[in-house]
């Protein structure tokens, strides 16, 4: 997937200024695709040049004019082509998993350092899960009252929630395993 496709989906959901789009990435799209504000602005200009987007200048009193970005028919066609293309499974590269396997070749002090790293990693995932759950409460208070777009947004969010819960369960298993190894040491 490219940033262009994430932007097309977001702008088809609702046209936006670059600032509004960047905030949308920070708030919701960032659940599955991250981008800096600078990347978003750079890609918006390229997509406009490629006729995937058009911008309408909106005057603002006391502020610089802003551009509201919308998807062109060419952009929609590019998105539909991408939507219909097969998806290749992502290759998983997990540095922490390699470190955990490598702990068998380290001493007790090294394993203690690994425990601290796993706990830090776990805290990050716990915070991400809390953010997803807060977003779910905020954005989907009544799951029964939603249209197709909201239902699909919600199912993506539920996937993120399930993933974070799976990672947390695995990290708990890692910590339990490291703890049992520590107890088995003389």
From TrEMBL:
One annotated GO molecular function: DNA binding
Cited InterPro entries: Tscrpt_reg_PadR_C (IPR018309), Tscrpt_reg_PadR_N (IPR005149), WH-like_DNA-bd_sf (IPR036388), WH_DNA-bd_sf (IPR036390)
Pfam family, any one: Vir_act_alpha_C
Keywords, sorted A to Z: DNA-binding
Transcription regulator PadR N-terminal domain: residues covered: 7-79
Entry annotated with the keyword DNA-binding: yes
Top-rank taxon: Bacteria
Domain spans labelled Transcription regulator PadR C-terminal: 92-179
Residue ranges the record marks as coiled coil: none
Protein name, as recorded: DNA-binding transcriptional regulator, PadR family
Species of provenance: Micromonospora chersina
Lineage summary: Bacteria, Bacillati, Actinomycetota, Actinomycetes, Micromonosporales
């Amino acid at each position: 997937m490219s940033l262009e496709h994430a932007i097309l989906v977001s702008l088809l959901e609702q046209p936006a200024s670059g600032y509004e789009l960047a905030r949308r990435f920070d708030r919701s799209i960032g659940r599955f695709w991250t981008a800096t504000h600078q990347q978003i602005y750079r890609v918006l200009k390229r997509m406009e040049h490629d006729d995937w987007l058009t911008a309408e200048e909106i005057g603002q009193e006391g502020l610089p004019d802003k551009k509201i970005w919308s998807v062109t028919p060419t952009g929609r066609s590019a998105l539909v082509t991408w939507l219909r293309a097969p998806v290749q499974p992502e290759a998983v590269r997990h540095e922490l998993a390699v470190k955990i396997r490598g702990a068998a070749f380290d001493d007790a002090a090294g394993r203690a350092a690994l425990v601290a790293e796993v706990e830090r990693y776990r805290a990050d995932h716990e915070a991400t899960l809390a953010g997803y759950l807060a977003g779910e409460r905020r954005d989907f208070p009544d799951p029964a009252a939603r249209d197709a777009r909201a239902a699909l947004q919600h199912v993506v969010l539920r996937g993120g929630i399930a993933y974070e819960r799976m990672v947390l369960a695995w990290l708990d298993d890692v910590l339990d395993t490291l703890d049992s190894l520590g107890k088995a040491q003389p």
